[in-house]
Design goal:
The protein is of the alpha+beta class. α5 crosses α6. The strands form 3 sheets. It has a 5-stranded mixed sheet, with helices on both faces. It has a 4-stranded mixed sheet with strand order 7-8-9-10, with helices on one face. A two-stranded antiparallel ribbon has the order 1-2. A hairpin with a 2-residue loop joins β4 and β5. The chain contains 9 helices and 11 strands.
């Protein structure tokens, strides 16, 4: 008499999947998938490396040394982006390229001269030794005769006043007709422009909280108001100076705002030109 054995339990996977197909699914297909993914990643990596100027092509540790001596502006570039890419500063690029009339307006195809590595190192050493000597920008556009008249300033006098050129995104501290220091700033954006005309600083705060629709900024340093809520102040939330960034105020680097705060007293004229 033949012995009887109970049927083998069938799992859900075994019930619908033949043993041969299971072997291929659990072994061959994952290996083929992994190989396909590795191949795709290698193709993508090779494509990035083949694009001149791409982040991967430059490499993370050698991007400063590989920047060309003369950089051709690409679509979407700004001087700030170029400066970061080439390991220099926006202000240094402006000083090295006096042909750029407006740092906020560079055009695709234009050439930007990049300070060579040895020049950047030399200037970095100089800035460290004499930081005050490198806050002045190259060739700022001076006020016209009409500007002096509208500001109520005698160019032959020695009155302290502040001149802000919105088209150039530059602020200059003056004594009469003599420029004392010039700074790159960020003024109001298109939807929230900075007011133009002649004003006077009417109040100063070492720090001030600023709030409005959708924002709150605590302890904004070296704030000087010259017209309602419009003021000049230090900025810790961005470093994109030379580009309109604000809701109407004049943004400065904190160290620049500190200098201007000491320079200007309550009653100092502020003249803003488009």
């Amino acid at each position: 008499m033949n012995a009887w054995f109970p049927p083998r339990p069938i799992t859900r996977c075994q019930e619908h999947t033949p043993a041969v197909f299971r072997a291929r699914s659990s072994a061959g297909r994952p290996r083929r998938t992994a190989l396909w993914l590795k191949t795709a990643l290698l193709v993508i990596l090779a494509a990035f490396l083949a694009v001149p100027g791409s982040a991967l092509a430059r490499g993370s540790g050698q991007e400063n040394e590989e920047c060309p001596r003369s950089y051709r502006v690409q679509r979407g570039d700004t001087l700030t982006k170029i400066a970061k890419r080439c390991g220099t500063s926006l202000q240094e690029l402006i000083q090295f390229n006096p042909q750029i009339a407006n740092p906020n307006r560079i055009f695709t195809g234009a050439r930007v001269l990049i300070p060579p590595p040895e020049e950047r190192r030399r200037r970095a050493d100089q800035v460290q030794d004499n930081p005050e000597d490198f806050t002045i920008l190259a060739n700022p556009a001076p006020p016209s005769r009409d500007d002096f008249e509208r500001a109520g300033i005698d160019p032959d006098g020695d009155e302290k006043w502040i001149f802000i050129d919105l088209s150039e995104q530059i602020l200059t501290a003056y004594r009469g007709g003599d420029a004392v220091k010039t700074f790159l700033v960020s003024t109001g954006r298109r939807g929230t422009p900075t007011v133009t005309g002649r004003f006077e600083i009417y109040v100063k705060y070492r720090t001030d909280d600023m709030r409005g629709p959708g924002y709150f900024l605590k302890d904004v340093p070296y704030t000087m108001y010259f017209h309602g809520a419009y003021g000049i102040h230090g900025t810790y939330w961005h470093d994109n100076f030379g580009v309109p960034m604000s809701r109407g105020c004049v943004n400065m680097k904190t160290e620049d705002a500190r200098w201007l705060y000491s320079f200007a007293a309550i009653g100092t004229t502020v003249y803003v030109r488009k």
